[in-house]
Amino acid sequence: MKKIIFLLPLITLFSCYNAEHNCKDFKNGKFKFEFEVNGVKKTTFFERKGNIEIETFDGKTDTSTVRWVSDCEYVLQKKHPKNMAEEKAISMKILNTSKDSYTFEFGMVGSEEKQRGKVYKVE
Q1: Quick one: which of 30, 42, 56, 59 could link to 123 by a disulfide (CB 3.0–4.6 Å)?
Q2: What is the residue range of the signal peptide feature (predicted)?
């Protein structure tokens, strides 16, 4: 009985925690994604409007189509791939949101390997 009384507050605390999922707030807008490559901080900017995403990275601009699978999941496909690697679609899943950012998981469609990142809404 003492164990149940001790565990009850912990169970209540964890059951009250729900990650925010206001994914619709991030379907359109201007965004920034920062990441690190070999210890160097990189930034990419992108704008999403409807089913198009325009990304600018290292002075180069590229366009992808966006196909929403659900409110929090979508698939990106380059419109003009320059090589076979760019021909592969990328699965994106928004894990949680805040007022001006979201945490997401991404990877090649069909691959079990996933990475995580955080995107900030700039407009």
Answers
A1: 30
A2: 1-19
